[in-house]
Amino acid sequence: MAKYFDVHPENPQRRTISTVVDNIRSGALIAYPTDSCFALGCQLGNRDGLSRIRSIRNLDDRHHFTLVCQNFAQLGQFVHVDNDVFRAVKAATPGSYTFILPATKEVPRQLLHPKKKTVGVRIPDHGVTQALLAELGEPLLSSTLLLPDEEEPLTQGWEIKERLDHLVDAVVDSGDCGTEPTTVIDFSGGEAEIVRRGAGDTARFA
């Protein structure tokens, strides 16, 4: 059964955040809130967590996983960003955007798109997510909590606990979060290509 953590949305309890991060470091797969919607997350090198995300979401090897980063300095360790792209990404973060960029050697090979060698990155504008990332000290390997054959992501912590009780190890609930997945922008070819329209305004990339 999944552990259930009730976290204050604006002032996350430090002890609770620390306990969740201890679980992540011990190999846990968690469901957690972001500024777009709930996500599945685990530690970067957690192969079992990665395969469980693939299984829960029924994903193939061409799916772009996302590294959810605390800040721009951390993001820059895992993707190559040239000056023009830097300015565009910097202006849109933190926020409900995922950017697909060429990965550095810091990214485990099993996370890369098999042909493009790219990975998704984002910096969320959400207090609980930021508290988890600050405590963890590294990005969370993540994917939107969108179940196969369902058009809408799950948005209620209690429902996630109910439906995924034996599939995830913990559910972090901080009340209302976003209900729409991130907007996905592919910069791997140098120009902005809108892959998915979601919570982030696409006008700046049109």
Automatic annotation (TrEMBL):
Gene3D superfamilies: DHBP synthase (3.90.870.10). PROSITE patterns: YRDC. It holds the Pfam family Sua5_yciO_yrdC. Signal peptide: none annotated. Coiled coil: none annotated. SUPFAM superfamilies: YrdC/RibB (SSF55821). InterPro entries: DHBP_synth_RibB-like_a/b_dom, Sua5-like_dom, SUA5_domain. This is L-threonylcarbamoyladenylate synthase.
